[in-house]
Amino acid sequence: MEQKEIWDADAARRYDTPGTGMFAPEVLDPAVDRLARLAGEGAALEFAIGTGRVAVPLAGRGVPVTGIELSPPMVEQLRTKADEATIPVIIGDMATTVAPGEYTLVYLVFNTISNLLTQAEQVECFRNAARHLGPGGRFVIELWVPELRRLPPGQAATVWHSESGYIALDTYDVLRQHAVSHHFHFDDSREAKLFRSPHRYIWPTELDLMAQLAGFELESRHADWDGAAFTAESRSHVSVYRLPPSP
């Protein structure tokens, strides 16, 4: 399935979980704090803005935010929280769609660059970020680290989260560098609901090369939005890339 088919009206209705999961204050607030500092006095552009999980509170901090989003139903959900004048959104894909204006910050959170399923599209995403930024502008990516070390020979899946009523696992195609995330939601009935999304996983070093091809340099990399050290055991990272400043 294409991404615009996956993120349909049903997915948009179920996406927001106020106060819990990725909407929990301890998850969301550090991301908004960091992005607000990086944006400074300029404007921010969010690739794959979705329902505005990050954009709405960031705009509430006084940062002008524009979004690019492939899914109209996700934007419709965003419009229940902020109008077009507050957070303008351009419908299109994050690899090629151009938003008007110049920005000090472009950001792409919660693993969304992996929704682009080819290396070429991911490289174009970096180039698209660069064309929106002025000298010294930053591109921030939050991305998970592929957990291939947990795959013994002959096993193609890892369970990465399990709690009451929810199990999440990833299946890997290591030949194509693809993974599919499977999210199972269930209750006391005999049936479960399944949501799946395909991804192309990217190693941090490969991400750095993509950045270099677009003219960026790696400014910092941490294990989370709070600035914890990135180590060999980190399961995700927040990487900040920067264009060279004016001569």
TrEMBL record:
<keyword id="KW-0489">Methyltransferase</keyword>
<dbReference type="GO" id="GO:0032259">
    <property type="term" value="P:methylation"/>
</dbReference>
<protein>
    <submittedName>
        <fullName>Class I SAM-dependent DNA methyltransferase</fullName>
    </submittedName>
</protein>
<dbReference type="InterPro" id="IPR029063">
    <property type="entry name" value="SAM-dependent_MTases_sf"/>
</dbReference>
<feature type="domain" description="Methyltransferase">
    <location>
        <begin position="45"/>
        <end position="137"/>
    </location>
</feature>
<dbReference type="InterPro" id="IPR041698">
    <property type="entry name" value="Methyltransf_25"/>
</dbReference>
<dbReference type="Pfam" id="PF13649">
    <property type="entry name" value="Methyltransf_25"/>
</dbReference>
<dbReference type="GO" id="GO:0008168">
    <property type="term" value="F:methyltransferase activity"/>
</dbReference>
<keyword id="KW-0808">Transferase</keyword>
